[in-house]
Every structure is written in structure tokens, then in C-alpha cells.
Amino acid sequence: MKEVARWLIIYGLGLIALGTTGYLSNPRKAKTALYSGGGFGVVAICLGVLTRRGVSWALPTALFLVALFSLLLIWRSVVVWKAVAAGERRKAFVGALLALMMLFSVFLLPYLFLAWR
Description:
Blueprint: H1 2-25, H2 31-52, H3 58-85, H4 92-116
Helix pairs in contact: 1-2, 1-4, 2-3, 3-4
Transmembrane segments: 6-25, 32-51, 57-81, 93-114
Keywords: Membrane, Transmembrane, Transmembrane helix
């Protein structure tokens, strides 16, 4: 369980870093990047700490929330990349950040599932 907890904490720190990067790229319009990346990053870190301490509900909760966050990231990525394809090139940076968040989430999901089983 300690390794799973470590990955949840690393995942959370990565989300905070990417959310902060998104916010700093455009502070007027990118508050949601800070709220979603930073907020969910803090939740992931807390769940990682609880998992490390052996709290029984922390791992299934993390699995559920990462799956939910992955679906949100897929939806947001599709919307942003459609806008980029339509000519809004300035949104490509946001699309790249969302894709990285989604990639981290999708790679973590099977690992969490196998640890939970």
C-alpha cells in the first residue's frame, strides 16, 4: 500500500504543478485550471496519506475520483482540441496541459484498480 500511496501523492503534486502552470499562463481566464488541478491534486495527496495510514476507504475513493476526473479531462480535452482544430491556436497550450493531466490519470487508474482488488 505504501507504493500506491506514494503514486497518489506524486499524482497530486503533478496535478498541482500542471494546474498552476495553466493558471500562470493566463491568470485572467485560467482560474479553473488552478481550481481543478490544484484542488484535485490536494484531494489526491490527502487520499495518498490516508492510504499510507491504512484507512480502508481511501483507496476505493481514490479509484472512483480519479476515474471521474479522467472523464472530466477527456471531455475538456475534446472541447479544447476541437477549438484548436477550428483555428483557435492559442488554446493549444491548454490542450497540452489537459492531455498531460489525462495521461497521468489514465496511467494511474489500472494501478489503483489492481491495488484495490
